[in-house]
């Protein structure tokens, strides 16, 4: 691989993914609906809802990291969010199949499980939540991620394309930790106190690009600990007392969204924690 396309290259994660790819010697092209002055690579303004534009923009690239999306079920009508995210994902995969691109990394989300944005909050079936847990979104954003993952599976069946979908937790930069209410555990209950340092999210994205995996797979990309000062067992007893199916013991501040499959498949390990931020 020599040339990598990154959709959403001007975004929070995309811009840092591009920087790391360039450090590793790749030629990078950013596909976004705006030009950004914080990235220094070839940029193409693209409406990902226009299939012709997507095909033209991806011509000549060897692999794609698809990160462009409306990132939450807010600020736009729900129908637009769902249509935008699913159509963009389909267009990227369809264009890749036509152009003979056999490796795509898809930005998915832990929101696909449904807990984060649920109008009617509900509890997980068990802890830790792994990739086998049912996805039960109640809103357009989480549903769009489920559809994109199913679309990825379809393209693998049809073309043999390798598609690794990364279910990122809430992505947090080092400078944001000081604003996090880690002493108030109720703040992050609905996201299961789950987060991923942006540096670890970048590393996971590149690890997925480098991994040879014969299929379509979906992986949780989350940190090793919780975004709370409380120990995990206390969090569960206080906020999720009805969940009795605990599949691992919790002694300290272990994450309750599992990243073990991502560690195995990608040979990747999170290196950063909010609790270390003051030392960095």
From TrEMBL:
Lineage: superkingdom: Bacteria
Species classification: Bacteria, Bacillati, Bacillota, Bacilli, Bacillales
Organism, as annotated: Paenibacillus agri
Protein name (record): NAD(P)-dependent oxidoreductase
Family, similarity comment: Belongs to the NAD(P)-dependent epimerase/dehydratase family.
Keyword Transit peptide carried by entry: no
InterPro entries per UniProt: Epimerase_deHydtase (IPR001509), NAD(P)-bd_dom_sf (IPR036291)
Keyword terms: NAD, Oxidoreductase
GO molecular function annotation: oxidoreductase activity
NAD-dependent epimerase/dehydratase domain ranges (all copies): 4-215
Pfam families: Epimerase (PF01370)
